[in-house]
Request: fold
Amino acid sequence: TLVGLMGIYSSSKTENVRATAASTLSRLLRNSPGLVGGVLDRWGQRLLLTGLADSSSKVQVAAVNMLNQALSQPEVAPKLAGLLAQEQGLLPAAMGLLDHSLPLLRAKAVVSIVLLCRLSPQWLLECCQQKLVLHMERLTRDKDTCTQDAVVLLRQEMSGAVKHICSGIAEQLAIMQNSQIRCSSDGSGSSGACLEQLQVVLHLVTSPFFRPAVVDGQLVQMLAEFLLAVPAEGPGGGAGSVAEFSNTLLHVLEALSQQPEHVTRFPDAFLQHLMPALCSVISTNSSHSDTRFFCLRMMSDVLAIYLTDPDRYSAVLAQQLLQPQQAAPRRNSSSNGRLFEVTAVLDALLRQHVVPLVPVLLEQEEPMPLYALKLLGGILEVNSGYVSVVESLQLSHCFFEFLTLEHPNNNVHNIRLCKQLMICGSLSHQQLLELAAADKVSARLPALRQLQSGVHLSGSIYCHRNARCAWLCELWDFN
Reply:
């Protein structure tokens, strides 16, 4: 019977006859699952590839039914995986059905992708590289109920797939550390293939549709562990799969740091795991300079989200924590209790990890000092109580030393820091005299007044030619 049906399917020039043979073969395999393996061994490539690409939608439905049936059988799926690896046109043919005009075929194609993802994360990576995310985001607007149900199923499947991928990467990184393997991998072995699968996570976390389903505290914590476990050589500092993995990891973290709703939803993961990991990379001289800057920028973005959110951070509570002799604040409700907990964690992070980094960052190449001054200025603007921490690090004299037109660290963020230190009154008159604060500010006044009195330039040219003075005009209100 099978041989006869395949003969009719292969030789018939009539569409209806060919469709009837394919449909009969599909139903026969459904009723006799044990025959699926033999059919794949003998006719798999011709049956599936030609069927999925057939001009008849009835033949395509029969072909995708047989494909899904084979993928759903554990004993047959490995054979099909080998067939997929040998025939590179099979996966694009299945992906092409996502654009089919027939809703039933679109839904069945999504189911095929779900089954492929269960078979191996490598197939999920292959699908992502063929624009799976864009296809799914478009299908979310599909009005067909079956298609919508299939898309929702795929979205739910991604959560488990990401956890499986991250677990495999964690095991691989542990093996690399124990074996003292660094950047010698060229990406062709099993380690390279495993690390490459992090690209799947990048595809998903940058998608508004998939991101809510895959991002949670566990993912953030595992990514932080990857950051500490990956070899020190970052982008430009290594070769092969390790350098690519490091680059992908940084872009995944960057995508997460730009999503305030996820950053504030998982404060424990971000503040107790990711932020210390970022600080560790920033402070490590063996890390590549681009990697350190990338991490510093992400740390600034995450801190800005928390420090400017009154539901997540309270400067009043933080100042009470800085003064342990005062009585601990009362927690009147669960929301206040959560505010207290996040504020306490963030306060410990700033005092123990973030602010102590500033002296090191000020000695590094641009633009690290600029971001360090910007970060510290933002912290002091939200909570002036950290002035005492700045003074304990003996940074005040550094900021006033920068207060010259010739110094490369003379910028708007540094002058804001000087202004905040003076407003807080933490520096005595004698200290200000020793720092020559008045002389340094007054030395700039002639240039400021000249700018104010009538230099007729457009705004953009004005800012460009007088970049060294524009910040004083802004902060001291001269213009």
Residues 181-188, 234-239, 454-479 have pLDDT under 50 and may be disordered. The radius of gyration is 31 Å. The chain has 30 helices and no strands.
